[in-house]
Prior knowledge:
Blueprint: H1 2-27, H2 34-50
Amino acid sequence: MSKNKSFRVTLTTFWIFSMMNLATFLSNRQWLPFSEWIDAIYAPLYKLMFGG
């Protein structure tokens, strides 16, 4: 029973996150700026690997 409940919570969290990300994309607003965060994290690595 506990395993099913944790699965349901995980799935619900995933769907809420997906809906928020879709709403952010469609409204062209930056509620969840994941693309900027990912770019800030990986930009130095890309520059190191592929050059400037």
